[in-house]
Amino acid sequence: MLREVARLVWGPSLVVAADLIVKGYNEVGDGFAAGVVVVLATALTYVALGASGAERALPFLRHAPKLAVGGLLLALVAGFFPLLLGEPPFSHRPGPGAHVATVGSLELFTPVLFDVGVFLLVVGVLTVMLHHLADPDSEAGTPLDEPHDAGERA
Amino acid sequence: MDEHRLLGEPADQSRAEDQGRSEDQGRSALPVDRPGWAACAIVAVGFALCLWAYRRGGGSVSWPWAPTLDLRLSFSLDGLGALYALLATGIGVLVFAYGTQYLSLHLAHENRPARERWRFWPWMALFAGAMVGVATAQDLVLLFVFFDLTAVCSYFLIGFDRSETLTRRAALMALLVTVVSAVALLIAAVLLYVRYGTFEIPQLIDRAQSGTTTTVAGALLAVAALAKSAQIPLHFWLPKAMAAPTPVSAYLHSAAMVAAGVLVLGRVHPLLARSDAVLTGLQVVGLASIVVGGLLALGQDVLKQVLAYSTISQYGYVVVLYGIGGTTAAGAAAFYVLAHGVAKSALFMTAGAVTMATGEDRLSRLGGLAPRRPLLAISAGLAAANLAGLPLTVGFFKDELFFEAMHGAGPWMTGLAVVAAGLTLGYIGRFWILLFLGRCRTEPRPTPALLTAPVVVLGVISVVLGLVPGPFSRLAEDAGTVTAAAPVTVLPGYHATASAPNLMALGAWTLGALVLLLPGALGRVSTLVARAGDRLGPLRLYTRTLRGLFGISGALHDREVRNLRTSVAAVLVPAGVLTGWAFVVTPTVGALSVGTVRGIDWLVLPLLGLVTVATVVAAVSRARLGMVLALSVVGFALSGIYALVGAPDIALVSVLVETTITLVFLAALAGLPRDAPPTGRFLPGPEAAPHRQGRQVLAGGIAGLAAFTGVWGFLSAPTRAESIATEFIRLTPGAHGRDVVTVIITDFRGLDTLAEITVLLIAGVGVATLLRKGKLW
Asked: Lower CB count within 10 Å: N or C terminus of chain A?
């Protein structure tokens, strides 16, 4: 039961996270909360399937370090690009009061990029920590219904 | 050192084969040192740029750095800056070229991988850049930054052979002595800023008056500079720093890092000149360094040690000249730095080449190398003659100018100058004679030509400028003009007259010849001085201080983190005691009030009750699972309270974090053995020591009571001052948002968020380092 829920819940968690970021500027939630939601779903998978099982089910988790560094770079760019335009860091474009294009409730302006950077970094770092703390290399409790050799991929 | 070991080959091979191999290693087998040549190219470009800018009359730039603190990134390539920048980059090109070969051989001998170069060249290049920064910076704080940057680079360069304890200690010593003294520079900068309202050196020189502030600031500046230039009594780090690879010594310890100290003296000299006490102090320190450095250099056996004590002595000359002050001395000091830099780096590279060829680094095991290495012997001889101030080398003029300035300072100084120059001729003559003449004790092996070529270049420079000193004297004039704040003329030349400098030179040579002919007597004096220094010297004080500090730190650390409980108590108990003290000393009448319960509070109260119950359960529970679940109940109940009192963002994050923590806790518990909690040093069981348990309850009680009264006090008297929250709420719609918290996080306080997520990334790397030796996945 837990395993089935864990398998099913990861995709929806991304949707919830996207929702938190999109509506972040107008409603409760931000990139950090969105990141933790995704990591919670990942953690549930780890608990349900064991470390190597989880990393087999979600093979793209191994890109987590890149995600973390990419998130930091994105946040840095979003924060410091105004320096190139001669403005103080963290000035946003379009500026205060100017017109902002919107897609639904998503406003297309630079702080959203910064928030996405925070999201990526939180997901990346916490996934790396999960990976290390779950210790797949000395994993004893690999579920029996999974083939053992496939673990090498992760 | 055993030559076979130096080559990294077994000792039972025959000498012929040995030599053949080493030739192979020297000529063809060594990989090209690309990072080294890249660094060399960078420095060469730097030299060309500095020369070009200097020829076009210098120039200055100034950008705002931290305008609210009146800090500016202001650089100026004036005469003084040009002199030191050209010296650092010019010598740098030669030393770096030498280093490309030296480092490859060094790494090959120690069986270390060639990629370790990447731990060397970036620091060398950064160091060269920092030196140019020190030379051109016009803002005291900026100067301090570059000053410390050179010290940090020197730490990594001296400690390059990091597997050896002595090397690491030497690196730490150089760092501590120069960096701790550099704090004096920062204090002086702040003192001057408070009094005169600027960090800019030229403005300070205009505004500063004689007085206590200027004297104290001048003395502090001098302390920082003297420690950097390895002057007595802060000289002891330099001989130890000889543990560095030779290119580092040839660069940092001849023409660059130690030169930064006298550079600062030259830069702020008009400030120092406002106080006679500071100038007298400089003279005393300089003379002591000349004499002690010279005497100790006479008795050293290790090649680089001779040169290290010689450096202490030679920078003593410059410090004395700055102590005398005036236009003649300022010009002479600038000229001296140039000539000395050329000579000393050549001699260091000679020492390195000899050690590479023979595997020996002691005068007592070397000798008779002149017939076997004629080119090196002649070039090193020229450099030594330059240092000793013999005619036909540029060093003659440095001594001529020195004598002239000393003669102007009175009869005592005249006599001391002759003694100093005699000592110099004595120790450097001894160095060259023991190395190149006499019986050959160790046969040299072939070495790459690049280990000799830079020495030859510097030897040729010594002679050419000894015939045509124009370029150096013009540089020295421009530099002296900055130092003396008045036009300086430097006119070196050969005058066959019985002038005072010529007579003093003759006296010095006679004295030097006597020292060389009668090595015994002065050798004994040198040994005595060395022994006295070992017993009473500042090195002993340094060692004792360091050991004492380690002792205190260790004792504190041991008390604090003996186990998890004491380290928690070490934070909570002092915090509690301080809060209690604050309540005792401030009037508390009416400060603590009980409000009324209404509206939403009726929902909050039961939640608080739940928190209380869960806390008690967590405290008394013996089962791990129960403890964890009780703690998570506390967390979730608090999240509910946040939601009720109107902080939905915090409630959301709190729920998420609580869920994560509970999951992680449970996962960690699954990894623990299932039987009773282990008892031991780090986890004393409750039954292990009853009196300890009592202490823990007391610590918890103090902390809890303090937190309770503190929070109660805050809630009883909400501040009436305008909160920044009002402003944030007002500005939020302008930032296209309606959720104030998100806008604060991503926009208003974005820089904080950036710092926080960076910390998170570092924590992630930390976890990876602890658990997987840094493998991120």
From this structure: N
| A118/B657 CB distance under 8 A | no
CB–CB of B383/B458 below 8 Å?
yes
Nearest to A52 by CA among A41, A61, A65, A63: A61
**Closest-CA distance of chain A to residue B100, Å:** 35
Q: Is B586 left (phi over 0), alpha (psi -120 to 50) or beta?
A: beta
Q: Where are the beta strands (DSSP E) in B419-561?
A: none
Closest to B656 (Cβ–Cβ): which among A33, A75, A125? A33
CA distances from B33 to B107, B356, B445 (A): 11, 17, 22
Non-local (6+) Cβ contacts of B524 within 8 A are none
- The shortest C-alpha distance from B751 to chain A (Å) reads 7
Q: What is the ipTM of this complex?
A: 0.85
| Overall domain count for chain A | 1
| A144 in any annotated domain | no
Report CB contact under 8 Å: A122, B760: yes
Q: Select from B350, B383, B386, B354 the least CA-distant residue to B367.
A: B354
Query: For B479, phi and psi rounded to 5 degrees?
Result: -70, -45
Residue B326 Ramachandran class (φ > 0 left, ψ -120 to 50 alpha, else beta): left
- Name the residue in chain B with its Cα closest to that of A36: B656
Q: What are the backbone dihedrals phi and psi of residue A101, each rounded to the nearest 5 degrees, phi first?
A: -70, 140
* Domain assignment present for A149: no
User: Residue A57 falls within a domain, yes or no?
Assistant: yes
Whether residue A146 lies inside any domain: the answer is no
Asked if residues A48 and A3 have their Cβ atoms less than 8 Å apart, the reply is yes
Which residues in chain B are closer than 8 Å to A47, comparing Cβ atoms? 663, 666-667
How far does A27 lie from chain B, in Å, by closest CA?
5
Backbone angles phi, psi at B74, to 5 degrees: -115, 125
- In chain A, the percentage of residues whose pLDDT exceeds 90 is 16
Query: Mean pLDDT in chain B?
Result: 84
State how beta strands A106-107 and B60-66 pair: unpaired
Terminus-to-terminus CA distance in chain A, angstroms? 24
Are A133 and B668 within 8 A, CB to CB? Answer: yes
A132: domain range? Answer: 2-138
List, for residues B236-249, the tens digit of each pLDDT value. 889 888 888 989 98
CA proximity to B114, closest of B6, B179, B29: B29
- Identify from B63, B642, B736, B741 which residue to disrupt to test chain A contact, counting A C-beta atoms within 10 A and taking the largest count: B736
For residue B519, is the peptide bond before it cis, meaning its omega torsion is within 30 degrees of 0? no
pLDDT for residue B96:
92
Q: How many CA atoms lie within 13 A of B373 on its CB side?
A: 34
Q: How far is A153 from chain B (nearest CA, A)?
A: 12
Residue B683 confidence (pLDDT) above 60: no
Chain B residue with minimum CA distance to A130: B664
| Cβ contact B736–A47 (<8 Å) | no
Cross-chain residue pair B656–A96, CB shorter than 8 Å: no
Preceding peptide of B233 cis, ω within 30°: yes
List pLDDT tens digits, range B600-649.
Answer: 888 889 999 999 999 999 888 878 888 889 999 999 999 999 998 878 88
> Which residue in chain B is spatially nearest to A70 when comparing CA positions?
B761
Backbone angles phi, psi at B532, to 5 degrees: -60, -40
Among A64, A89, A129, select the one facing B767 at the smallest CB separation: A129
**Roughly how many angstroms between the first and final C-alpha of chain B, as a whole number?**
44
Full-model pTM: 0.73
Residue A33 CA to residue B557 CA, distance in Å, equals 37
Alpha carbons B240 and B248: distance in angstroms, whole number: 13
Cross-chain Cβ contact A40/B660 below 8 Å: yes
Residue-wise pLDDT tens digits, B288-342: 999 889 888 888 888 889 999 999 999 999 999 999 888 888 888 888 998 999 9
